[in-house]
Amino acid sequence: MKQSNYKVAILSGDGIGPEVMAEAIKVLRAVEQRFAIKFTMQEALIGGAAIDGAGQPLPPQTLSLCQQSDAILFGSVGGPKWTGLAPDQQPERGSLLPLRKTFDLFCNLRPGQIYPAFAELSPLHPRVSSLGMDVLCVRELTGGIYFGEKGRGDDSAFDTQTYSKAEISRIAKVAFEAAMKRNRKVTSIDKANVLQTSILWREVVTEIAKDYPEVELEHMYIDNAAMQLIRSPQQFDVLLCDNLFGDILSDEIAAIAGSLGLLPSASLNGSGFGLYEPAGGSAPDIAGQGIANPIAQILSAALMLRYSFGQEAAAVAIEQAVQQCLEQGIVTRDIQPDSRYGTADVGDAVAAAIAAAA
Ligand code: NAI
Ligand code: MG
């Protein structure tokens, strides 16, 4: 079998970033043992660590490593040490925003699950959470109201939302492609009863859907979707959202899933390149103690295998190994407060489960 070789830029960053990244690397090494895949992983400074080590949050060497790589595996950046700096020098704004811009990462993916073994992590009533949830939020990330013309007078202010057909169709394609690898349903979120951009959104999404006859398409108003997510989240597969609606619903999904430590994310540009990172931050309150949950970082690596490298079997192997550890109770304290397992124990167990399944 032909061996695929992928270059991955490893940007661990601050706080728990390096701790959870070490476990994701461990898991990728286990994947190499089982599949015909090789990773060339190179580390570079990012965020606060880069401010301390190289004088700026995104040094040129780091950017050029990213440009030479097939994907970026990102930890998290920021912490109390750097909060006094000017806004565009802050670790988060000074590194993630320019990376999104440089690589045109217009698509943000946030999967959220209620794992049956830990349905009680969800704040939803057990009557609902016991039915489970497995959704993927596909959010447009570089257009819409956050980037439109805005202004402020004495007594008024305004923000505008513009979407082009091209912007809508490229994000819609990602949603349908993702649905083909999942449960073949796309729910497109809009407010087409009041917004012109939503009417165009609906038209374009309906047009794109014709190329995916195997995928069921439904349209839903944002207000109804916010309600349906807490009433019966199991009805959804892929949620396709503009920038604003996706911002809100992805946080709602994270809250329903229960723990920040379990949630990965992907930011893509449609050419296969992507940045993969946990949904949470650098967790300075628990950094350095070896107790951070590495699963969000490990599942981010699985998303990288799926969306940048097309290695579905390897992605599924990681996800199944994670599921197995959850079922066996090999979890950190954010999941089970009296747990005796730490960050490295969970990484070891996931890596071992991948090797054992071979
Ligand atoms: P946070 O996500 O770092 O922490 C919120 C809470 O969740 C904390 O109690 C933390 O201990 C817990 N938590 C998060 N991830 C966890 C994990 N893997 N395992 C166990 N517990 C976990 O958000 P917060 O406190 O608002 O921000 C802390 C720093 O992180 C700030 O400097 C912020 O700017 C930065 N940040 C960076 C992000 C990024 O790099 N993309 C995203 C969000 C925040
Ligand atoms: Mg948000």
Distinct small-molecule ligands in the complex? 1,4-dihydronicotinamide adenine dinucleotide, magnesium ion
Please tell me the CATH architecture of the largest domain by its name: 3-Layer(aba) Sandwich
- Tell me the strand percentage band: 15-25%
Could you tell me the CATH topology label of the largest domain. Isopropylmalate Dehydrogenase
Short précis:
The chain is of the alpha/beta class. It has helices at 17-34, 47-54, 60-67, 91-102, 126-129, 165-180, 196-209, 222-231, 243-257, 295-307, 312-327, 343-356, and strands at 4-13, 37-43, 71-76, 107-114, 133-140, 150-152, 157-159, 185-190, 216-221, 238-241, 264-268, 274-278. Helix content is 41%, strand content 20%.
Explain this structure to me?
- The protein is an alpha/beta fold and 358 residues long.
- It folds into 2 domains: 212 residues, Isopropylmalate Dehydrogenase (3-Layer(aba) Sandwich); 135 residues, Isopropylmalate Dehydrogenase (3-Layer(aba) Sandwich).
- Helix content is 41%, strand content 20%.
- The protein is built from 12 helices and 12 strands.
- A 10-stranded mixed beta sheet has the order 2-1-3-12-11-4-5-10-8-9, sandwiched between helices. A two-stranded antiparallel ribbon has the order 6-7.
- Helix 6 packs across helix 7 and helix 10 packs antiparallel against helix 11.
- The longest helix is centred in the N-terminal third of the chain and has 18 residues.
- The radius of gyration is 20 Å and the shape is globular.
- The two termini are 16 Å apart.
- Bound molecules: 1,4-dihydronicotinamide adenine dinucleotide and magnesium ion.
- The site of magnesium ion has 2 residues, from helix 9.
- Pathway: Amino-acid biosynthesis; L-leucine biosynthesis; L-leucine from 3-methyl-2-oxobutanoate: step 3/4.
- It comes from Alkalimonas collagenimarina.
- InterPro entries: IsoCit/isopropylmalate_DH_CS, IsoPropMal-DH-like_dom, Isopropylmalate_DH.
